[in-house]
C-alpha cells in the first residue's frame, strides 16, 4: 500500500475537462476554401477523438472564426450546412456549434483570439471556463483559450507558425493524441514537434 508522508496528501488524479471545444477548420475538418459539402472531410482521428469524449461523457463543441461570412464569401446557411455535414460524418451531433462571422477589423469580442466564443460555449455547456479544454491549430486558438482561462492544446498543421508552436502551452501531433492528453494521458504530448 502506498501511504503519503505525514502532513502530505496523495497526488490528486488529473481531472477530466468539463467540456472540450474544437476549432473547426484544419482541426476537426480539413479546411477547404469552399462550402461544397462533397469536399468536407474529417481530420485524421477526429471520429475516434469525439467517440472517446462521448465514452467519458464529456460534452464536445466547436468554436470557429468564419470571416468568410463577413467578407460575403459564405452565408450563415452554408456554414450551418457544413456543420451538419460534420455531425453526419461523426455519426452523431456535437453538443454545440458556435462561430464568429466578423472580420478581424470589426473588433468584436467573439472572434478568436478574443475569449467570447469560448466563454459563451462554456456558459451554454454549463462548464466553468477553467475546466474547458480548447484544441486548435493556430496561435489565435491558444490565445483565446488563455484569455478565457481555459486550457489550450495546439495540434499544428502546415499553416501553424513555429512561433505559435513555441508559445503553445501543450502541443500534440494529432487530434486523437490531443484528446487523450486532456483526458490525462501525458505521454501523448510532444514538445517540440
List keywords for this structure.
five-stranded parallel beta sheet, about 10% strand, 7 helices, 5 strands, about 30% helix, alpha/beta
Q: What can you see in these coordinates?
A:
Helix content is 32%, strand content 12%. It contains 7 helices and 5 strands; from the N terminus they run E-H-E-H-H-E-H-E-H-E-H-H. Strand 4, helix 5 and strand 5 form a beta-alpha-beta unit. Strands 3-2-1-4-5 form a 5-stranded parallel beta sheet, sandwiched between helices. It is α/β, with parallel strands linked by helices and 193 residues long.
Question: Could you give the topology of this structure?
Answer:
Elements: E1 19-22, H1 46-55, E2 60-65, H2 67-70, H3 76-90, E3 96-100, H4 116-124, E4 132-136, H5 139-148, E5 151-154, H6 162-167, H7 175-182
Parallel strand pairs: 1-2, 1-4, 2-3, 4-5
Oligomeric assembly = single chain
β-strand percent reads 5-15%
Q: In sequence order, what are the helices and strands, one letter per element? A: EHEHHEHEHEHH
Radius of gyration: 17 Å
Q: What is the straight-line distance between the termini? A: 39 Å
Q: What is the number of strand segments?
A: 5
- Helix proportion of residues, in percent? 25-40%
Strand order of the largest sheet: 3-2-1-4-5
Number of discrete helical segments: 7
Mean pLDDT: 89
Low-confidence stretches: 1-13
**Major sheet, described briefly?**
5 strands, parallel
Task: Determine the structural class based on helices, strands and strand pairing.
Answer: alpha/beta
Shape: globular
